[in-house]
Amino acid sequence: MEANNSFSDSYEVRDITKATYFRLLIPELLPKYDKIIYSDVDIIFKCSLNEIFDNIDLNDYYVAGVRSYIEDKVDYNYGKELGCMDSDYINAGFIILNCEKIREDQIDLKWLELSKRKFLYQDQDIINLSCDMRKYILPVKYNFTQQYYKALTTHIFNDYNNVCENELKEAMCDGVIHYTGVKPWNSLCLGFEDWWYIYRQSPFFNINYYHDYVSSMVSMRKLSLKGRIKLFIKYFYDIR
């Protein structure tokens, strides 16, 4: 099966194309699998996924994911305004799908119908609304977004997010890092050096592209002196 024009009438917003809806086709596209991990492309993995995939029994849950960062009262009430009965609004950038249960209850058909509506966060809203009360909440380390990263580095916490500083530290050091917002291959952002470190070890590494990027950051004075020294020592020293 192919995605074809399944979402040709679906809503686009914030320069996010209709391709974002394709994750909703996973249970149908891969009928041989009962449980599947989906991940956005702006993610790096600093931990193994074996434990979470093998040991978590989704049972009657349709999806597992990490709660989205809640910055204020508006964010806190977003799920309820959307129509959810629970307050567990998850980020769909990293999720585990219970494909067997989704197919059994025909939730994927509901996704196709909901995709025609104008949701602000498109397929993420659709997943949260359709899986209401059937969402398994994962530890924050499995989707450590830029918002959580900022909360940790600024030491500014609020009462809306039920996570402690130690959880966030673990996520930063040994978690699934999700570059929501600004991308590290385009500009500076929190944890950008981790992405470049992983990229440098990948088979797609292009040393000229890498050097041009870092040179532009330094020449444009986007890095502090400490940041420049850190980059040169950590990355340039052992490149051959």
Features of the shown structure:
alpha/beta; single chain; 240 residues; globular
Task: Briefly say what this structure is.
This protein has helices at 26-29, 50-55, 73-82, 99-104, 107-114, 122-130, 146-154, 165-173, 192-201, 207-219, 225-236; strands at 35-39, 43-45, 63-67, 90-98, 135-137, 144-145, 176-178. By secondary structure, the chain is an alpha/beta fold. It has a four-stranded mixed sheet with strand order 1-4-3-5. The protein has a three-stranded mixed sheet with strand order 2-7-6.
Question: What is the topological layout?
Answer:
Layout (H helix, E strand, L loop, with lengths): L25 H4 L5 E5 L3 E3 L4 H6 L7 E5 L5 H10 L7 E9 H6 L2 H8 L7 H9 L4 E3 L6 E2 H9 L10 H9 L2 E3 L13 H10 L5 H13 L5 H12 L4
Parallel strand pairs: 3-5, 6-7
Antiparallel strand pairs: 1-4, 2-7, 3-4
Helix pairs in contact: 5-6
Structure, explained:
The chain has 240 residues and is α/β, with parallel strands linked by helices. The chain has helices at 26-29, 50-55, 73-82, 99-104, 107-114, 122-130, 146-154, 165-173, 192-201, 207-219, 225-236, and strands spanning 35-39, 43-45, 63-67, 90-98, 135-137, 144-145, 176-178. It has a four-stranded mixed β-sheet. A three-stranded mixed β-sheet has the order 2-7-6. The radius of gyration is 19 Å and the shape is globular.
Estimate the mean pLDDT confidence.
85
Helix content: 40-55%
Q: What Rg do the Cα atoms give?
A: 19 Å
**Extended strand count:** 7
Measured between the Cα atoms of the first and last residue, the distance is: 44 Å
